[in-house]
Q: What sequence folds into this?
């Protein structure tokens, strides 16, 4: 009986063990084989250098420098908490950081830590420290010294908004990318052309497969897919012109922006926004405090006012209204309109700026002297309904109230007021100034670029370019071509016009002549600035009211040369006062320099 | 020629006879040799990539231990083990002395004083103590249980096992302590201690165990070391934390599982890249599983099954009750070590640091195992001798003429 019990127990033991081994090896063997492979194979992502960004002449604006970085891989730190602490304390001591700082860094990167993603602890190690770490690698599991590429800004912060920044890929960007293209820890463009041309600049990450032992020591290479360097981006931007423009902006001392663009192709020659920011700040690991300071600065240095800042344009809008009125037959070019200094529409009296009385004038003169009453009449006549109206339809076709499609991320769309828009917002009559139904007065305001209208400098430049070139609404673009190694052109960037408008030669000639007289003839609004210019400019000032207490928004839009337009320049200065005082001089400097450069090139 | 007294030349015993080869259990021998061969084979591969400071060649050292062990086994099986019963007090005293020696003078290896440093190798006395305890407790049980079945006697016998177990636990070596207790219980069980006594033992164990676990920490005395507690609980869910004990079990399971049906051979990365801890000793089964797959693991387990079956058979065949009890103790210890060690390797038993007899690398374990096998073979030899020549011991008084074989027993 007791023999039987002992025998049974022995049989049971052997049976249980055999069954378990069978289940592990035969039933789940494949799964454990995969786990064993995970254990021994470490995949190291090889990051290629990012492509360079060059200006139109091939001058390097952004390239890379290689730095020695100290990388911490949380997953490979000792599991034992006290051993881990000992290692981190020693490391902190070597780096001149405090243990708390390292812990904060580890915690800051919590999501990456859970993914076991490497954390760059320090960039640019001094040589003695580097050698010490290399010699004592055994003592610092999870710490490695690696070579990495960091952006170098050869022209300082020139064109900071256009070039943009790079940074570690965000969880949202990871989700949006095609599978496998991006991995946590990858560096991608986060703004500017760095972002819009990220795919070309980034190159293809490579992969090194290494066999490692339990202590993480490499034991031979299993495979190597080399990284493919990123392509270079050649911009249409001219660094020289850009510098002139930025200097002119900074001299105003006020938040301001400019765009200089080829009137026929939409190639952007220069584009700036002030205040600007230090690109280098983004090339180094930065503290949250530094980042917040930039993001929360009331002057919004990170905002690219040239394509993201929307303002009422004031009289700079008049060439668009003139084009609409002439094409729609609201007025003939030579039709004489009497400007008595004011116009009463619907019980509200609208006056000329500065109380001027211009008398009997035609379209050209109206543009030259910037008669408000002339355009008030057009605004009143072109009354709008729903989403439409003669002025609205033409303005929208010319690119107002919608993105121009420039190759920059997060472009502003601005706002083109319509009766339908106003009525959608209308809720009650409690506050008649800001909450009221659409009236003819709104259209009268729109005709001189005041009121709810919001236009970005880039939109105005695009509209002026369309008038100048006879109707092609160009797609502004900063990228000129993608270049492979050695400057070989991979592809040209030549986006076609968004649309072509039927602008007659008569309309075009009338508007351009009015604008040229405004700039070049005595009595013209910007004659004080452009009067002595060596070449003919067609330009229009703008002075927009920005509500009580705020100084006026100063604008200037120019097309040059007037007879054979090649370039469009738009400048705007927040709180700059009259267009001729603040914005026109900025535009003048840019135009001067542009033609100097043109001459130099010939 | 002068006729002298006729001298009948004494026929010299053949080597086979001297070694009692006729009477041993060949299957038990085959299983033992098969297992030690397996061990050497496994160590040949698991010995590579060694950390500095440890022997370079586990396999050849293990082979040397095996040769000494086999010699000891042969020497032991030639002896009449029944005499050991008379030495039970000395054997028991020696067992206690050995354990005390380790406790007092032992070298501390990874927190436990299990080893005594000798000139050639570190000796682990508890390995020998296991066998000595079996032999002595079987002797005492033979005395006490035969005569009467009182609870007090049972308690005394149990106590005989608990004392060395307690001393071993102080080293601390929970695994060996459990092996000693299991061996003692097995002897008692086969000796015929009434079921009620076992029920009482179980109840007492439950009460004391509960008290240690609940009251101990309350008054500041830790009954078991933290690491032991970790080990005992970690196996319940090895994938939960990737560190420490459960890390070992997890790596062991990965090693075993990744061996699949036929093994990974030289691609055994779990073993060769050191992911598998203690791959020469406690986790050698996992190394075998990875290298030779289910084929190898099952073959090794089958060899063990064969060995256990033959041990069972020896237990039944023993011509003396003392032999039966000794065999029961040895059998129980072997089976328990198999269960706990392989169970730990495949994640169904807690990590307790018990070597796998004949397979794990280690001189003390190999020598101890072969000595125990020698005793088993000795029991078989004595039983066989008597079975084949009953007359030698029980001459039939009624018959005047000897019907037995001409040779005398000695």
A:
């Amino acid at each position: 009986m007791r023999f039987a019990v002992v025998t049974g127990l022995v049989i049971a033991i052997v049976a249980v063990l055999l069954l378990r081994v069978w289940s592990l090896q035969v039933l789940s063997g494949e799964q454990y084989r995969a786990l064993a492979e995970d254990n021994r194979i470490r995949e190291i992502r090889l990051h290629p250098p990012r492509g360079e960004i060059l200006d139109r002449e091939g001058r390097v604006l952004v390239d890379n420098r290689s730095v020695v970085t100290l990388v911490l891989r949380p997953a490979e730190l000792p599991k034992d908490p006290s051993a881990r602490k000992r290692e981190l304390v020693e490391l902190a001591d070597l780096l001149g950081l405090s243990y708390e700082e390292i812990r904060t860094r580890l915690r800051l990167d919590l999501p990456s830590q859970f993914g076991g993603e490497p954390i760059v602890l320090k960039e640019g190690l001094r040589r003695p420290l580097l050698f010490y770490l290399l010699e004592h690698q055994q003592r610092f599991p999870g710490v490695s010294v690696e070579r990495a590429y960091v952006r170098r800004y050869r022209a300082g912060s020139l064109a900071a908004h256009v070039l943009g920044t790079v940074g570690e890929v965000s969880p949202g960007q990871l989700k949006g990318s095609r599978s496998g293209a991006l991995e946590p820890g990858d560096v991608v463009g986060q703004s500017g052309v760095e972002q819009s041309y990220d795919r070309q600049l980034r190159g293809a990450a490579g992969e090194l497969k290494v066999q490692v032992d339990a202590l993480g020591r490499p034991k031979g290479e299993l495979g190597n897919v080399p990284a493919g360097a990123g392509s270079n981006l050649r911009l249409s931007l001219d660094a020289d012109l850009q510098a002139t423009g930025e200097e002119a902006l900074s001299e105003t001392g006020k938040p301001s922006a400019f765009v200089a663009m080829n009137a026929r192709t939409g190639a952007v020659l220069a584009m700036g926004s002030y205040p600007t920011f230090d690109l280098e700040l983004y090339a180094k690991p930065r503290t949250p405090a530094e980042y917040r300071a930039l993001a929360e600065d009331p002057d919004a240095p990170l905002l690219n006012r040239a394509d993201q800042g929307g303002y009422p344009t004031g009289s700079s809008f008049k060439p668009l209204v003139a084009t609409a009125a002439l094409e729609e037959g609201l007025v003939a070019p030579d039709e004489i309109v009497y400007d008595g200094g004011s116009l009463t529409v619907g019980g509200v009296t609208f006056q000329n700026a500065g109380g001027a009385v211009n008398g009997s004038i035609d379209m050209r003169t109206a543009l030259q002297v910037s008669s408000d009453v002339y355009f008030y009449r057009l605004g009143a006549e072109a009354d709008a309904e729903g989403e439409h109206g003669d002025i609205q339809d033409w303005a929208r076709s010319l690119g107002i109230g919608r993105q121009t499609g420039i190759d920059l991320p997060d472009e502003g769309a601005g706002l083109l007021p319509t009766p339908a828009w106003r009525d959608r917002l209308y809720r009650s009559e409690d506050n008649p100034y800001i909450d009221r139904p659409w009236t003819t007065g709104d259209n009268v305001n729109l005709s001189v670029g005041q009121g709810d209208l919001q236009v970005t400098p880039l939109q105005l430049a695009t509209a002026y370019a369309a008038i100048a070139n006879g109707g092609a609404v160009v797609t502004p673009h900063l990228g000129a071509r993608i270049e492979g190694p050695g400057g070989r052109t991979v592809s040209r960037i030549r986006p076609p016009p968004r649309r072509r408008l039927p602008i007659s030669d008569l309309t075009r000639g009338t508007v351009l002549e009015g604008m040229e007289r405004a700039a070049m003839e005595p009595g013209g609004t910007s004659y004080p600035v452009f009067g002595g210019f060596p070449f003919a400019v067609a330009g229009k000032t703008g002075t927009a009211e920005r509500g009580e207490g705020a100084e006026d928004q100063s604008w200037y839009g120019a097309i040059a040369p007037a007879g054979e337009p090649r370039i469009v320049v738009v400048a705007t200065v927040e709180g700059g006062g009259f267009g001729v005082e603040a914005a026109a001089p900025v535009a003048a400097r840019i135009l001067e320099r542009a033609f100097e450069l043109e001459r130099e090139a010939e | 020629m002068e006729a002298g007294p006729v001298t009948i030349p004494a026929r010299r015993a053949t080597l086979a006879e001297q070694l009692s080869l006729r009477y041993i259990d060949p299957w038990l021998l085959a299983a033992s040799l098969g297992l030690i061969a397996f061990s050497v084979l496994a160590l040949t591969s698991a010995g590579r990539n060694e950390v500095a400071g440890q022997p370079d060649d586990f396999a050849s050292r293990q082979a040397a231990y095996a040769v000494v062990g086999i010699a000891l086994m042969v020497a032991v099986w030639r002896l009449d083990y029944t005499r050991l019963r008379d030495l039970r007090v000395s054997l028991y005293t020696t067992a206690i002395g050995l354990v005390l020696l380790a406790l007092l003078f032992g070298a501390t290896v990874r927190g436990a004083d299990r080893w005594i440093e000798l000139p050639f190798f570190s000796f682990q006395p508890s390995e020998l103590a296991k066998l000595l305890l079996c032999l002595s407790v079987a002797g005492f049980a033979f005395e006490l249980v035969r005569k009467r079945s009182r609870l007090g006697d049972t308690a005394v016998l149990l106590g005989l096992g608990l004392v060395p177990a307690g001393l071993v636990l102080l080293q601390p070596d929970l695994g060996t302590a459990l092996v000693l207790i299991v061996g003692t219980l097995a002897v008692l069980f086969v000796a015929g201690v009434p079921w009620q006594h076992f029920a009482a033992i179980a109840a007492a164990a439950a009460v004391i165990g509960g008290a240690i676990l609940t009251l101990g920490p309350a008054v500041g005395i830790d009954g078991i070391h933290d690491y032991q507690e970790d080990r005992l609980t970690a196996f319940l869910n090895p994938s939960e934390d990737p560190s420490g004990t459960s890390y070992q079990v997890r790596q062991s399971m990965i090693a075993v599982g990744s061996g699949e049906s036929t093994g990974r051979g030289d691609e055994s990365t779990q073993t060769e890249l050191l992911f598998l801890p203690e791959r020469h000793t406690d986790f050698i089964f996992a190394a075998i599983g990875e290298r030779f797959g289910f084929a190898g693991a099952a073959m090794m387990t089958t060899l063990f099954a064969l060995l256990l079956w033959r041990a069972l058979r020896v237990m039944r065949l023993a011509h003396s009750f003392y032999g039966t009890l000794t065999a029961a103790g040895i059998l129980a210890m072997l089976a328990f070590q198999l269960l706990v060690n392989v169970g730990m390797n495949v994640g169904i038993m807690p990590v307790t640091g018990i070597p796998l007899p004949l397979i794990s690398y280690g001189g003390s374990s190999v020598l101890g195992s072969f000595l125990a096998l020698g005793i088993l073979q000795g029991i078989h030899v004595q039983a066989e001798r008597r079975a084949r020549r009953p007359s030698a011991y029980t001459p039939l008084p009624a018959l005047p003429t000897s019907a037995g074989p001409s040779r005398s027993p000695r």
